[in-house]
Amino acid sequence: MLRSSDYSYTRTKNTYILSCWFTKLYLPINIVGMDERTKNLFFLAGEENIIEIYHNGKLRYIG
Fold this sequence. Notes:
This protein is of the alpha+beta class. The chain has one domain. Helices cover about 35% and strands about 30% of the residues. The chain is built from one helix and four strands, in the order αββββ. It has a four-stranded antiparallel beta sheet, with helices on one face. A hairpin with a 6-residue loop joins strand 1 and strand 2. The protein is globular and about 35 Å long. About 5% of the residues are buried. The mean pLDDT is about 85.
């Protein structure tokens, strides 16, 4: 079973990987924020790339 610190590490690692991936594609990272209701992180890169990062570190490409 994963502890909350493991989730935090996975989430931080995925955030870093996404940042590197977007900048390698020369896409500006416009917004990085946290949804106050769900506590999920979200990225807006370029004009239409939105990715959500859940507590457990899983990613969801929205559009």
